[in-house]
Design goal:
mainly alpha
Length: 128
């Protein structure tokens, strides 16, 4: 059984330093790998999903993982802990975790103005 405790004031800064959910992408890049523009968590989860056949599933992002598992994984990533998705997750939970990470970004991956243009292109309209 896991012990639940809240961080003390003395270790609050280290907890915030490791946090990755809700942090802008450019800050995650500065914190982590300067040569790699994709945050570690995204690479880690996508690699797991690819290796375990998740990309073959129809409605990939429509299936929800176990909420408790997703929250537990989120906390572990935010605490800077090593996460072994093979042992600690399943494909739906990994997908839900990735979706949660993207939803928590303060700025969308695709800016609103570009999103509008992409939607117009997908409908056969070219307004660039």
């Amino acid at each position: 059984m896991r012990k639940s405790s809240s961080p003390s004031l003395s270790n609050c800064n280290s907890v915030l330093a490791n946090k990755i959910f809700g942090i802008p992408l450019d800050e995650l890049q500065q914190e982590g790998q300067p040569d790699n523009e994709v945050p570690f968590i995204v690479r880690h989860v996508v690699d797991y999903i690819e290796e375990h056949g998740g990309l073959e599933q129809e409605g990939l992002f429509q299936v929800n993982g176990n909420a408790e598992t997703v929250e537990w994984l989120r906390q572990r990533y935010d605490n800077g802990e090593d996460v072994d998705l093979v042992k600690e997750a399943d494909v739906p939970s990994a997908i839900s975790l990735l979706r949660f990470f993207l939803q928590e970004l303060p700025e969308p991956v695709i800016p609103g103005s570009l999103h509008i243009h992409l939607m117009q292109l997908s409908q056969g309209k070219n307004y660039f």
